[in-house]
Amino acid sequence: MAEPKKRQRLTQLNSTSQTSSHDRSKGQDRYVDGSILRITMKNFLTYDYSVVNPGPNLNMIVGANGTGKSSIVCAICLGLAGKTAILGRGDKAGLYVKRGCQKGSIEIELYRGGGNVVINREIHAANNQSAWMLNGKHCSQKAVEEEVKSLQIQVSNLCQFLPQEKVGEFAKMSKIELLEATEKSVGPPEMYEFHCELKNFRNKERELENAVKEKASFLEKAKQRNERNKIDVNRYYERKRHLDNVELLDKKKPWVEYETNRKDLEQVKRERDEARRQLLTLRQAQAPMMRKLQQIDEQLKPAEAQMKAKTAAIKEASNKCKQKQDQLDQKNKEIDTIKQKLNLKQTEEEDHQKRISNTRRTIEDLKAELAKVGDQPDVTPQINAINVELRQIQQERAKIEGEKTDLRRERENLFAESRMLEKKLNDMNNMMNAKEEKLRGCHRDTHTALQWLRRNRNLFVGNVYEPIMLMINVKDPRFAKYVENHIPFRDLRAFVFQRKDDMEKFMTEVRDGMNLKVNSISAPEKSCSQQQSSRNIESLKRFGFYIYLREMFDAPDEVMSYLCHQYKVHDVPVGNDQTKAMIKTVIEEPYLRVLYTTEERYMVKRSFYSNKINTSNSAVYPSQLLTITLDAEEKRKLEQQIKDCELKSRDIDEQMKALQKEAANLDRRDNELLAEKKRLSELKGKKRQLEQKISTRQDSLRQMEQSVIDLKKIEQETKEKIAAVNSLKVKIVSAFMVQMKLRTKLSMEKVYLALETVALTAEKTKQENDCRAGASELKTIDQMCNRLEQRKVQLTEQCKGHLRRAKSICGMQSNDSLPEDLCKAFSKLPNTLDEIDALLNEERSRAECFTGLSENVVDEYNRRDQEIKHLEKELEDKSTALNAYRQNISEAKNRWLNPLKQLVEQINVKFSDFFRSMQCAGEVDLHTENEEEYDKYGIRIRVKFHSSTQLHELTAHHQSGGERSVSTMLYLMALQELNRCPFRVVDEINQGMDPANERRVFDIVVRTACKETTSQYFFITPKLLQHLQYADEMTILCVHNGPYMLPPSQWDEKTIIIRSRQRKARA
Fold first, then answer.
1. Residue 488 and residue 697: Cα distance in Å, rounded?
2. d(Cα 341, Cα 660) in Å, to the nearest integer?
3. What is the pTM of this model?
4. Contact between residue 499 and residue 462 where contact means Cβ atoms under 8 Å apart
C-alpha cells in the first residue's frame, strides 16, 4: 500500500545571539574586509532554501549529524570559487545540487569598507556547469577568483579553511607545506612573495655556482691540455722545417739529373760520330772481296732451286709408294677376315651338334622322372580345405582390423577432447592465478596467509575456504561492480571457516605467529544460503528490478550462507535505468532496505518515531577485484570429464592389447596354412611341370634340327672371295713398281746437283775466310754505331723528361727560366746526385722521428687558445653575476627571514600559552637544516601531553587522533589573533577529543575568537558539552533539518523562546 505523498521539506538555519538585528547592522564596523555577512543556499545539498547571517567574531554552528552543518562549509568553499577537491567529497559540482533538482545556487555577501561584495553561483546538475554573478552582473569564474584573492581569502589554505574531510590532512602536512600555508594565512602579503623570490634566487644562484664551477673546471682542463700540446706544436714546426728542406731537395734533384744526363748525351754524340768514321773506312777496304762473294752467291741460287724441286718430286713419289703399300696391306687384311668367318661357321656347327645331343639326353631323363611321379595320390581336396580356412582367417583379421580402426579413431577423439578440456581448465586456472595476483597487489599479508593455508590445510578439521574474493565467481562481468560495492574489502579478503576452533587456530598461526594482518570469518551454524527473498523478483520487475544480488554469483555453501546472513545478498535487488527514473516510488516500498540502480546504490531507513523515510545514495564505483569471472561448476565438470576421458582411454588400450594378441594368433595360423598349401601345391604341380618341360625340350630339338649350317657352300664362297682380292693385289703391285723406278731416277739427279753445290760452297767459304777478319771488325763497329745511336735517342728523351719534371715540380711553364729565389736556394745545396740523396735521406729520417703529429694539433692549439680567452671572459662575467645574485639574496633574505622569525615567535608565544593553560607543553619554531636552502625551511610543531614524555614533533602517526585535533585547533587559534585573513573555518575538529581537552579547547577558542582584534571564525560541531563558558560576542547557529521544519516566513524567534519557557515551567 503506497504511503501518502511526502511533504516538501524546507530547512531553516536559526541564528540566536544576545544582539538584535538592529545592533548587528550598527556593528558592521566590527567586520573586517572579506568577512561573510550572508550565505544564501537554494537547492544545495540538504537545503531547499536557507539564509545564514554569521556574526563578526566566533560563529558556533551546532546541529546533529546529517542536518547540513558541513553543507554550509561546502557553500562557503564553492561560493568563493574553491575547487571541489578541497572538500574531499564529490569531485563534480553537479553532485552538490539537491537530489531531484536540476540546478542549485549559492549567494555569499562579503563585507568591504567601500561597498559589500555579493557573489552568486548557479550550478547546473546535468552538465556540471556554473554561472557566476558579481554584484548582480554576469562574470567569469576568473573574475570571482581575483576578487576573492584581493580580499585575502584562501579557501585552499588549510590554515584558513579546514573542512571535515581534511582535518586529518593538517597533521600530515610537511613542515614546508605548513610554513607556506602560514605565510599565506597570517603573514604580510609580501612575505610569501619574498619566500618564492628567495627560492628562485637560490635556484638561480645554484645554477650560477654550477656554471662557474663548470666553466672554471673546463678552463683549467683546457689550459692543461694546451700546455701539454705546446711541446707537440714545437715538434710540429721542427718537423715542418725538415720537410721544407726535403721539398727543396726534391725540387733540385731533377735539375741535377737533367744536367748529368745532358753531359752524358754530349759524350755519346761525340763517340757515335767517331764510330761512323771508322765504319766508313773499313767498308771501303772490304769492297773487292764482297763483289767476288756476290758472284758465287748468284751461281748457288739456281742450283739450290733445282735441289728443292728434285726434293719435292722425290717426296711426292715416296708418298704414292706408301699409298700403294697401304692398299696391299688392306687387301691382306680382307683375306684374313674372310678366313676367320669360315672358321667361326665351322666352330658354330660343332656347338650346334653338341646342343642337339644334350637336348635328346635331357628329354629321356624327364620322361623317366615323369613315369615315377604318376604313382602319387591327388592333393586337391586338401588344398581346397586349406583355402577355406585361409578365407575364414582373412575375414576374422579384417574384422579385428576394423575394430582396431574404430578403437584408434575413438582414442584419437578422446585425446583431442581431453586436450580441449585441459586447455579450458588451464584457462580457468590462469584466471584464478590472475585473481590471486590482484589479491597480492591489494593486500600482501592476505596472500602470504593464503600460501600458508594451502601448505597446512591438513591442520584443520572442518571446511576452510580461501578469501571470499577467490571463492565467489561472478556470473557476468557486468555484475561484478554491484557485488564488490556491496561486500566491503575487509570481508572480500577474509577467510571463511566452518568451525570456530579452526578459525582460532588459523589466527593464532598467521596473526600472532607470523604477524600478518588478516581477517577471518566463521560461517553461521545454520545455513542461510537457501534463504528465501522477501519478495519474488517477478513482482519487482515493474520497477525495473531484474535480479537479486545472490543470483549474480556462485559461492560455496558456507560462504554464501555468511553473505546471506551478514549482507542479505538474497534480499538486495538490482535494477536498471527504469528503477532510477522511479526511485521516489521505489523507496516507499516497505520491504526494501538496500537496492541498486545501474550506477547508484540506495540505502533506505525508516524512522522508529514518525515512520518517515530517510534515504542516502552513493555512486557505484567500477569493479577492481571481481572482474575476472570463473564458473566453478563448469570447472568441476571439466575435471570430471578429463577423468572420464582418461578412464575410457585406458579401456581402449586394454581392448587394443586383446585385439593385437588375437591378431597375432591369426597371423601365426595363417603362416602355417600357407606353408602347407605351398608344399601341396608344389607336389600337385610337379607332374604338370615335367610334362611342360618335356614338351618345351622337344620343340627346341625340332628347331635345332631344322637350322643346320651348309659348310661346303660356305667354303666355296670363301675361295671365290679370296681369288677376287688377289687379282686386285696384282694391279696394285704394278703401280707400286712404277713409282719406285721414278723415285730412284730423281734421287740420282739430286745427287749430281748436290756435288755441284758443294764445289761452289767450298769456294765461297774460302773467300769468306779471307775477309772474315775485316768483316768481324766491321760488324763490331757497326754494332757500336747502332748502340751509340740508341743511347743518344734514350738520353735525349731522358733529358726532355727530366727537364719537364724539374719545371713541373718547381711550378714553371715550359718556356720559363729558373726563378732567382730558387737559384739562390739551389746554390746552398749539393750539386751531385749522391750528395743530394744522402742529404734527402738524412732530412727524411729526422722528419720521421717526429711521429704522430699533424696540422690538426696546431689548429687545435690555436683554437683552444682562443677558447681559453673566451672562457676567461665568460668566467669573469659569471662570477660578477654570481656576486650580484648573492647580494640580492642577502637583501631578500633580510626582508623575509627577520619578519618570518618574528611571526613564528608570535605564533610560538600564543601556542605555548594555550598549551600551558591546558597543563601541557607545546612550541612552534622555524626549522631548517641548511640556512641557504630556502625551499627546505618549514614550521615545526612539537607537543607534549604527558609530563613523563618529551616534546615530540606533530605527525600523522606519533600522536593520537584527539591529540592531533587539539594541536591543530590550538595552532589555528594561535594564528587567529595575528588576523590577516578575514575568516577561518574549522569543521568538527573536536571529534575524538576527550571531554577535558574539549572543554579547555572550547574556552581558548571563545577567549581568542571573541576579541575585538580577531577576525571572523566559524566553528562547526555536532555537539557541545554542558556548562560551557560563552561570550556575548559569540553567534550560535543551530541547524535543524526534517519534514516538520517551519518555512522561513513563519519562523519567529520570540515565539520559540516563549514556548520553551512554558515547557520548562510545566516540567
1. 111
2. 71
3. 0.41
4. yes
